[in-house]
Design goal:
Elements: E1 17-20, E2 31-34, E3 45-48, E4 52-56, E5 62-69, H1 89-97, H2 101-111, E6 126-132, E7 138-146, E8 151-158, E9 161-170, E10 175-184, E11 194-201, E12 206-211, E13 214-220, E14 232-241, E15 247-251, E16 254-260, E17 262-271, H3 283-295, H4 299-314, E18 318-320, H5 332-338, H6 345-362, E19 388-389, H7 393-397, H8 411-432, E20 442-443, H9 455-458, H10 463-478, H11 481-501, E21 503-504, E22 511-512, H12 534-554, H13 558-568, H14 619-632, H15 638-650, H16 654-664, H17 684-697, E23 698-701, E24 715-720, E25 731-738, E26 742-749, E27 752-760, E28 765-770, E29 773-778, E30 784-787
Amino acid sequence: MRFSTPFALLALTLFPVLTPAAPAEEDPPPVLWYQEPATEWVQALPVGNGRLGAMVFGGIGQERLQLNEDTLWAGGPYDPARPNARDILPGLRNRLNRGEYQEAQDLVQERFMAQPMQQMPYQTIGDLLITTSILETARDYRRELDLDTAIARTTFRAGPTVHVREVFASPVDQVIVVRLSAKNVERPDRTGRLGFTLGFQSPLPATSRVEGDTLVLSGTNTGMQGIEAGLKFETRVRVLLEDGAGEIVPLGQQLRVERAEAVVLLISAATSYVDYQTVNGDPTAKNLLALEKAALRSYDALKADHVREHQRLFHRTTLDLPATTPAAKLPTNERVVAFQEAEDPSLAALYFDYGRYLLISSSRPGSQPANLQGIWNDSINPPWGSKYTININTEMNYWPANPTGLGELNEPLWALLEDLAKTGRRFAWAHYGTGGWVTHHNTDLWRASGPIDSAFYGMWPCGGAWLSTHLWQHYLYTGDRAFLQRAYPIMKGATEFFLANLVEEPKHGYLVTSPSMSPENAHHSGLSIAAGPAMDSQILRDLFAQTAAAAQILGRDADWRQQVLATRDRLPPDQVGSQGQLQEWLEDWDASATDQQHRHVSHLYALFPSNQITPQRTPELSEAARTTLNTRGDRTTGWAIAWRINLWTRLHDGDRAYSILKLLLDPSRTYPNLFDAHPPFQIDGNFGGTSAMVEMLLQSHLPLDPQSLAGESMQFELDLLPALPSAWPDGSVHGLRARGGFEVDLEWKGGQLQQATVRSLLGNKAVLRHGDATREVSLPAGESLTWDGR
């Protein structure tokens, strides 16, 4: 049911802002700021602590906080396996060998897809509405999100009273904290000017009630696709009057605060989710514990601990691109518009910081991983379910984590993989009749691992394999042997599945995936199902080499390791097609593909995020990748634009990469609050954009030779300013991380490297490269060197 305060339907426009606040002479970066309240969700400002999220609208007559809790999804535990699905595999593979692609795709659709054919969506709690009795026209209005403190702030003056609201989501106290204050600046002796009503509205089956100084919303999620609702949820808002001034009055399903000077609201939310199989948790107990602890502390203490914990992560990396245009002083929404006409390097730096802020806010140890919208979603059935799309989008979410020093924010992804290795093992047996584990192109809170949506989109078995490569990359950055021991069973299980399921294709004798597809692209009209698409072979080359190297480092499975490497040698090589392009499929079908500018560039995985293709080691394949990128074009969806930026940086074309970054920051691709506009909103474009800016400034590799992925022969390559765009002639970056356990600071002027400082954290060997100049590095752990690139 829906319910609200008596004022809930009042439009914010009833309280027009006539006089905006003047920007500060030096607007403190990094800050998003605006001169009017948000009237749409994509104008509101996000706060989050990994588990709880809120979108802050900054209204005057009515403030809206749209709330999320990261385990509130539709449905409940379910098994998506289809009985007897594995029986069709021999015939299905024979049809693909005979080139009967339509018949094969029809068979997958009828007999092999998961049940249900859709997964469960992420859902909103609803809104907390703070409805005021302000009647005066507001002036001196400013709404901002300070990325450095992770605090959203709204200030304005109504009559003689200055109103200040601060909102943050504390990762320390696990509550969202709101402080509202009102001060009469003309008559400081006059107090008690603050009054408002609190009420909930929710699209879920829910009711609200008052318990003393607390407003409570309780309800359930919804069932979907034949999966019954399995979760209870609860949200509590506790009202604390500062200095005891004011009065709290119950009003049925709302709370009224009267004659207060300053009020702190503590918001907690929880569900009955325990894990993907268990939903008997007690959300009330969780909320009461969090609120009792938080209520014992002052607002200043809550705020100080929140800021300290946020800055512990946020301060690890800094990017300085000096403001060179008056546009840097504009409100953020106006800067986005002006960016297309005048260079504004500091907007790119703000976008870089925003990506890091969003990752810190949506993925922390103990939370769920960042989904398609991070943790911010205002619907019970959002676009694409706001799920985990693992044929690019979830992977892109985590591209910037290690390079910007935020490696521990990967932890929710590792927990997801540990779950998928279990559900995916059951699914592998049910649908393929083999061991190992498999996950296709999507998963959800319930760790479903089957192919969904349709055969055309869903019959791709490499989602788990791609995610597993992140485990090895994390090891390369951290050198954490204990982590590798944890990761190895996941990597091994993913490898075991493909050792059992690769089949020999009849033309060349290569071992290939079958059935599969090149994600979401048609090789002929309406047909995606095929055997051995290039992306699969590229991912498996990485997975097999990395798993074998992990086995060697850990001293495990020596004979099996040799089997893995022998199988790897029989994967199809990357090929250059008749158009000079990198082939997307085993056959030269690219010219037959119906969409020559398809959003996915799956077969360029080998260029980025992998390093199988590099200009130095594979110039012919690099040129073929360039041809493919030119054919596909730059104008596409938000996340696909972000991927293209990363790809052009790997080709060392900084100006082309920057031109595409401008497309990403175009108002058609970036909302006023800097959310990526797919459209609609998908957060992966934000994370992909941050990753691309790292790649412009620093690239790091370990050559893909299975014999050099372990032991003393490991030598890393660090490429400094490999794709610096001419639009950034001056700047500096501090705290970037490189594979091999290196921390790098860079300063440049006039487009030339002035100084690089490289700190070794693990004692590994490396080759530094800047243009044609190279320098070998062999530093003990804890030592550093400086280099001017000559």
